Amino acid sequence: MNHIVTVQDAVTAFEPWMEPTDAELDAIEREMPVILANVDLLDAQIVTLDRTPTELDSRRIRRARRRLLAALAHQAMEAHRGGAA
After folding, report:
1. Which Pfam families does this one have (predicted)?
2. Buried/exposed code over 30-60 (b: 16+ C-beta within 10 A; e: otherwise)
3. Residue 12: is its pLDDT beyond 80?
């Protein structure tokens, strides 16, 4: 007779020790403005993939690029200052 057993890792895949650390969560939070600005830029670019961009589309892409550059500049300044908020 063969016994059926579960795989321990699959059953306990979400143990508390597998959660992100506070340092990892802080790093994600610091990068969130850049991530969101990048998502906005990608959304604006995706809209124009299957059509000729209108003036409104072009403005939306330019604004999204400026937001991304501003977020990157802010992140670089924070890193240069040592991460002090």
Report:
1. DUF6284 (PF19801)
2. eeebbeebbebbeebeeeeeeeeeeeeeeeb
3. no
In a domain, 35, yes or no: yes
42 assigned to some structural domain: yes
* CA distance readout (Å), 80 to 12, 54, 62: 41, 39, 27
CA–CA separation, 68 and 34 (whole Å):
6
pLDDT in the model for residue 10: 58
35-55: per-residue pLDDT in tens? 999 999 999 999 999 999 999
| CB-based contact 35:26 (threshold 8 Å) | no
* CB-CB contact of 76 with 69 (8 Å): no
Counted domains in the chain: 1
In a domain, 70, yes or no: yes
Are 44 and 68 a contacting pair, CB within 8 Å? no
